[in-house]
Write a structure and sequence with these properties.
Elements lengths: L2 H19 L3 H16 L8 H6 L3 H26 L3 H19 L2 H18 L4 H15 L9 H17 L5 H15 L23
Helix pairs in contact: 1-2, 1-9, 2-9, 4-5, 6-7, 7-8, 8-9
The structure holds zinc ion (ZN).
Zinc ion binds next to loops.
């Protein structure tokens, strides 16, 4: 199923779940937002709506790295002409050169891994917030998984539930856990093979049972 459909379904079930927890408009709206995001999270394992909206585009990052690499190397050339060789120059020269090499090799998937690493760093900055650290871990793992595997299984739901409860422990927002779980789970139902829009099904019981549903 397409990312936009998952977003829509997640938003609806999230709003309902939020309203079930606390029957007021604010909780329903929070639920809608959390559910919508959670509805696209399982597809972080593939290029699409979810991964593209949290990662810098490959083109932009490539350009940034190339420019930074060239600027560093040119500055160093100037410095060598002024002051001759020094230890620092090898280090910065290495960094500039590395940036140029990496900019050639980078793919959108690597960008997702890098985003995950940045989220983990953010978790450390925010006083080692367990929820953010786990969310970063989730993104890094998803960036290496084949499409429609563990993020689309009950283990994925369990991992996401732990992230939600940890986030809730730090930022107690009403309806957040229920809406998040509803949104995430809706994705696993919407990707079922019985629906005519899906060519492939999902392996809910990985790694114990590899049957596609
Ligand atoms: Zn999916």
């Amino acid at each position: 199923m397409k990312g936009t459909s998952h977003l829509l379904i997640g938003t609806i079930v999230g709003a309902v779940a939020g309203y079930a927890v606390h029957s007021d408009v604010t909780t329903a709206l929070t639920g809608a937002a959390v559910g919508g995001i959670s509805g696209v999270v399982p597809d972080l394992d593939t290029n699409g709506l979810a991964s593209n909206s949290i990662t810098l585009s490959k083109k932009v990052s490539k350009w940034l790295m190339e420019t930074a690499g060239i600027v560093i190397l040119l500055t160093l050339c100037y410095q060598v002409m002024q002051q001759g060789l020094s230890h620092d120059i090898y280090v910065y020269g290495g960094i500039g050169f590395l940036l140029l090499v990496v900019s050639r090799l980078i793919t959108q998937r690597h960008m997702l891994t890098i985003t995950g690493i940045l989220v983990v760093l953010l978790g450390f900055v925010l006083g080692q917030s367990p929820g953010i650290l786990l969310a970063g871990g989730y993104i890094i793992i998803a960036s290496f998984l084949p499409h429609r595997s563990y993020t689309h299984s009950l283990i994925g739901v369990g991992f996401y539930a732990v992230i939600l409860t940890q986030l809730y422990a730090q930022w107690p927002i009403d309806g957040m856990v229920a809406a998040g779980l509803a949104g995430y789970s809706s994705h696993l139902f919407a990707d079922l093979k019985i629906l005519p829009v899906n060519r492939r099904g999902v392996k809910w019981f990985l790694p114990f049972w590899t049957r596609e549903f």
